[in-house]
Every structure is written in C-alpha cells, then in structure tokens.
Amino acid sequence: MATQQKKNSIPLDEEPFRKLKPVESFSLFSAKDIQLFQEGSHDRLYEKFGSHTVTYEGVAGTYFAVWAPNAAYVSVIGDFNEWNTYSHTLLPRWDKSGIWEGFLPGIKEDQLYKYFIRSNSGEELRKGDPYANRWELRPKTASVVSNLEYKWKDAAWMKSRGKKNSLKSPFSVYEMHLGSWRRPDANNHEVFYSYKEIGAMLVPYVKEMGFTHVEFMPVMEHPFDGSWGYQLTGFYAPTARYGTPQEFMALVDAFHHAGIGVILDWVPSHFPYDDHGLYRFDGTHTYEYADMRKGFHPDWNSYVFNYARNEVRSFLLSNALFWLDKFHIDGLRVDAVASMIHLDYSRKAGQWEPNEQGGNENLEAISFLKEMNSTIYSRFPDVQTIAEESTSFYGVSRPVFMGGLGFGMKWMMGWMNDTLDYFKKDPYFRKWYHNQITFSIMYTFSENFMLPLSHDEVVHGKSPMIYKMPGDDWQQFANLRLMYSYMFTHPGTKLLFMGDEIADTKEWNYKSELSWDLLKHKTHEGLQQYVKALNKLYTSEPILYETQFDINTFEWINANDHENSVLIYARKSPEGEVILIALNMTPVPREDYPVAIPWKNSFKEVLNSDAAVFYGSNVVNTGTLKPRPGKYGQPYDLLLRLPPLGASILKMQSR
C-alpha cells in the first residue's frame, strides 16, 4: 500500500516505479555528439543538454544532463524531492567529457529543479540549468521542466522570408523593450502584459507604421529588470515575465502572419555573477576566462565567456542556432561585439595582456564569431546577423572567406554619433560643421551598414530625441523630421527605437511606458505620421534599398554649400532612375534654389518634411518641376523651394 506522499513528491513505491531506481543510467548523447561538443562545433546541444521528458522502460520521466567538469558530485534537486541533495544523484559519463546525466522516473513538466553541485574543492553550489527552456518568474531562480512543442502557422512566411530578409530588401527596424512599450499600469513596474496581450497591440501598430522588422531587446531570462535583459542567466529560455515559451512563439508567429520579421538582441559577450547562473558553475571558472584580465568586464561588472574553451564555444554556437531553429527568429543582433574582439576594450595599460601575436585582438573570440556566422548562414541562409561593433575593425560584415567576421550587417555608430552631434548644434553654427554631416559617405560603403538610433541614445541623461534638437518647439519638431529624412534617404538599413517615432518627451524608463498621451498634440501626431510616410517611401522605392550597399548608386549633387547649410544628393538605380534629396539645415526657407543636375528629366516631389499634414509650414514643391538650361556647371538646373529645417524628396519622371 502506498505511503502518504507529500505535495509534488514522486510515488516511487507504486508501480511501475518500483522496478526503477531514482536515477537510471540513460543518455541522449552519441559518441559523435561528444566529439563535436569537445571540438567546439556542436550547434544543436539544446537537443541533448537540459531537461527532456522521455519514456524509459515504459515509464514516463525526465532526462537531465549538465556539464560540470570539475564536479565531484551532482544531483537534481527540486520540488519533487523537497530539494533533497542526495536522493537523485546524476551519473558521470565514462568518457571524461565532464557531463553528468540520468533519467528520473515520474518527473513531469512544470516541476521546479536545480542542480546541486559539489566541486572537487568541496564547495557546494545550487545552480539553475544553463539549457533550461523555462525559469521561474524572478526573483525566484529555479529552472522549470518544460517542452518546446508548438504548432507553427507561419509556413508561408518561412518559405518566402529569404526575400524579405535579403540585403537587397528594405530593413526598417523598430527596436523595442517588451515590458515598457505599454503597461497595464504605467506606475507599477511589477505588472506586465503577457506575450499574447502585447502582440494584440504591437503587431498591428508595427504593421500600420510600416516597419519591416521588429527587434526585441533581450527576451532571454534575466534576474534584474534594470539590466534591460543584457545580463542573462537563462540563455535558452524566453523570460517568464510575459509568459511561456509557447506564448512567445505565438508572438513571433503573429508577426510573421503580418509580414514582419523578428530580430532578437543576443548577448554572447558576458554574463552576471548571480549565484544560480553560469559564474563559477562547478566551483571553477567553467564558462568564463580564469584570467580576470580577460574574464571580467569592468563596464558591466560581469564575466566574459572563455572563447578558447571548446565546450563554451559549443554552448554559444548552439544558443545562436537555438533561437533560429526553435523560435523561427529572422535575425540576431549581436551585442557588444567590440568588447568581444578587443582585449583592451575599456581597459587601461596593465589591465590587459596582448595576444600571442602581440596585438590587442581576442583571437579566440574572432574565430568563434567567424565560425558562428558561417554556421548560421549555412543552416539558415534566409536570416541575418547584425553586429553592434563601434570600431574600425576590418570586415565585420564581409564574408569569412574574404577575411571578414561574416556578419550580414554592422551598426554604423560613427554615423549615429556625427549625426546627433551635428543636429544638436544651433543652425546658425552648422555651416562650420558641414563636414561632420557629409563625412559618413566617405566610409559608408566599406561595410553593410545599419543606421541606428537606438535605446542607448535616450537614456542615462542623454535626453529624449526631441530635446536633442535646438530651437523652439516648432524648430525642434522640424529638426527631428529633417534628421529622420536624412536617415531614411542615406544609404544603409534603418533602426529606430520605440518612442522616437512619437517624440517622447522623457527618457526611456524600463519601469514605465511610452508617453502615448502625447499623440493628442498635433506636433507629436505629425511626427508619427511622418515616420510612417518615410517607411512607406523607403519600402516602396527600390532605389532606396535594392542597392543600398553599392557605392555606384549614390551621388553628391551639392555637398559644398556650407554657407547655407544645404545638402543635395541623389540615390540612383542601375537602370538610371533617380531620387533627389535636398536638405535645408537652417530655418531660412529658400525660394528658387538652383540645383545643377546632369539629367534632362523632370522631377516631382514625393515627400516634404515641412508639409502641413506633418505640422510643417507647408513650403513645398507642387506640380512637375522641369529643368532649365544649366548655369552652374551641369547641363541643367532645377529650381527648388527649400523648406525651413526641411527635406524635399523628389523623384525623376519618365520622359
């Protein structure tokens, strides 16, 4: 007769459990798996490590596997055994791989667990599962037995997404933080909308605004809200803040149904020192470099992955592929690449050690990134990887076979810094900084650049985007529309952080939500409508995206009028089509401004940032503009009305 069982404990005295031990010898690993794991090239470890519900000897239960090479003893503890450290001891593999594993009969989904690890030094640790697909809601820290079963409904998107994610297609990315876009209570940061609730509001909004992709700041499990997701403990789990893995899958599915790609921020550069995380996982520096000159990151008070250890490389490689495979993600924006590939990043002399060749490059990190990108593009050729890399390191977005790192795109941090610095200046003084706004074209085709105005620019006292702009209220909005015009017509793909499209008047705060009530003001509504119009222009004019990384498709028409702070340039197609962009960086409208052009064709204005509908002063160009005989060094002149602090975007008409 069964004895009285406590809540969540396993009735091991009942059939069919009596014929099985608390932990049975069982493995999902093949000899090839171990070989690839130890070579650093295993890209599907999520199918082996972690917790997996299986049936053994006719009994349902869960298989557990964890890498703890310096452990003397490992057991599974959880709510099913009242966190007993001795009742469910895992078995070390015979091949000295450092893997501990075993089948636990009766362990079902939704049960909480951790690994109890006694290191060879005698230190005792209680760690979450590095490969767990689900975790308890913070501040609790246990892993949760779960599965990733989901019936996807995005077959049409997956079949055709190669075209949507191509470098010859428009990329207009809406970067966002899931918890603070909207909240059930703007003043209560402990309450969140679920993945389903967010999707019901977010998907139609992103679609209506005309963005092609959404980029989520890290959704992987993290213990501290204030890290914004960049200090991860659960690399293989969507955060429980908003729901289950399946509910996150449904959110991705919904975006795909709307024709919108999903990019994830991914952080292979560092991790925090929380007791339940990766830091000193088995009592030694398992995942991080032992030498703190390489293993500790001073900027973020966190620890750096040991890219020289093959098992760690396999962990990260598998993690990158995991999100693309199991969650149908369309791209990874890789965080802090500069810190990965430079040994002296944020370190003074004496705080870092040169590599074996005497340089400052982290050769192991560089080789890892090359292998990661090569593997991703071989298995998922219809996705993109995007590097946040802030230095002049060669070939970040060039193929590995050409000596590059192999990313699809690279954030253009120089453009971002120069552009914001220029637009902060009073228009009266801009003529002395003309080269600052033209300089980016000198190097814009050296990489496949994405132009970012990201979350980093509206936090920590940097001020919201609207208050970076000089002048009175009207001039601030005119400047912002002008800057966005420059961004969307400049070569390269685009990224805009949430709230920038409505000119939020406060810095981004992860504890609150965007200031949606501002849209009752015509100034803010006008800016939102202008961003929508820019997205429509960018995504509907192939000239602006099909050859966005080709140097032959950009031409300066007038880059020298620094006295009037006017810039005029053309975006061209190989077939001879032209879009002409005229930017007036001062509040002085200019009538009959002569533009010397080589084309006989007429032009028609297709977008003007000063139009009344966007809350401008309506200095626009109407009708068809016909060129006149040239007086300024070209066969023809075009006379334009240049709006104050405005952009006039014109399209060549067929003869």
UniProtKB/TrEMBL annotation:
This is 1,4-alpha-glucan branching enzyme GlgB. Pathway: Glycan biosynthesis; glycogen biosynthesis. The lineage of its organism: Bacteria, Pseudomonadati, Bacteroidota, Chitinophagia, Chitinophagales. Gene3D superfamilies: Glycosidases, Golgi alpha-mannosidase II, Immunoglobulins. One of its GO terms (cellular component) is cytosol. One of its GO terms (biological process) is glycogen biosynthetic process. It is an enzyme of class 2 (transferase). It comes from Chitinophaga niabensis. InterPro entries: A-amylase/branching_C (IPR006048), Branching_enzy (IPR037439), GH (IPR017853), GH13_cat_dom (IPR006047), GlgB (IPR006407), GlgB_N_E_set_prok (IPR044143), Glyco_hydro_13_N (IPR004193), Glyco_hydro_b (IPR013780). One of its GO terms (molecular function) is hydrolase activity, hydrolyzing O-glycosyl compounds. SUPFAM superfamilies: (Trans)glycosidases, E set domains, Glycosyl hydrolase domain. Coiled coil: none annotated. Monomer. The keyword Transferase applies. It holds the Pfam family CBM_48. Catalyzes the formation of the alpha-1,6-glucosidic linkages in glycogen by scission of a 1,4-alpha-linked oligosaccharide from growing alpha-1,4-glucan chains and the subsequent attachment of the oligosaccharide to the alpha-1,6 position. It catalyses: Transfers a segment of a (1->4)-alpha-D-glucan chain to a primary hydroxy group in a similar glucan chain.
